[in-house]
Amino acid sequence: MAELIPLISGDELRTQAAPARPRRPEWLKARAPSGENYSDVFRLMREKGLNTVCEEARCPNIGECWNSRTATFLLLGDTCTRGCRYCAIGKGKPQPIDELEPERVAESVAHLRLKFAVLTSVNRDDAPDGGAHIFARSIELIRERVPDCKIEVLIPDFDGNWEALQLVLEAGPDVLNHNIESIPRLFRRFRPRARFEQSIELLARARAFGPQLVTKSGMMVGAGETNAEVLEVMDALRSADVNVLTIGQYLAPDASYWPVDRYVTPAEFDMFRREALARGFRHVESGPLVRSSYNAHKHVGAEQH
Predict the structure, then answer these.
(1) What is the pLDDT of residues 112-146, one digit of tens each?
(2) Sign, Cα dihedral of 247, 248, 253, 256
(3) Which domains does the chain have, with CATH numbers?
């Protein structure tokens, strides 16, 4: 992996250029967001004072999804208490948790007439339950307002607080998603304050809670891992009986983040999909622009290949 080269002291040359990053290939270009539905969703989020991971994480599929009147709601504010080196969401000391946020989320789901809603959040290590009660209340209110709407939750690890996980599970989401993100060798540098084994345990506990619950995880590639290591992560996820897998290209938000090591080719993404299906995943999204919530409505039954 290309490493930043430290400054040289004294009268010597004080900076050295890091190796040039690979140029972004054509297959990673997405259309600029536009359209009537996109504008409507944008306006609604502002009116309700809500955040979306689509915007905060600079998702390349925002135009496609919002024009389909779908969005991934970002609960618990827009400031994360962790410093993951790949994520564009703001980091620092967050505002107090807004206990009325679930009401506005449910109102927005009803306004958008969603058949499938995705709820995720920043990490809130400052809260005793990591904000799990906001997930649970949001699920309950969406069920009340839009009974036919399916719900996916993309949750943090709650710092290993299994009572918090239980609170979310008891609210009855249709899909429980927790992203593994990376391989064991890079994990602690890529995701400080998280542990690979803890994430696997979370997914295993979700499976034990409800055998019929769809469980899901995702990872990014092109951050320094090998293809063999990606396959090993698949095996670890299957050991927890995870149903759905998403794999996409890692894209650094800017030069201050973890560097892109390489751009994985479409042929390699096709290989990952075949390998994942062969291991028993019931649905796989694998492609350069795939993100965790991409085509999420197709995952609820986890029946497609």
Answers:
(1) 888 889 999 999 999 999 999 999 999 999 999 99
(2) positive
(3) 32-298 (3.20.20.70)
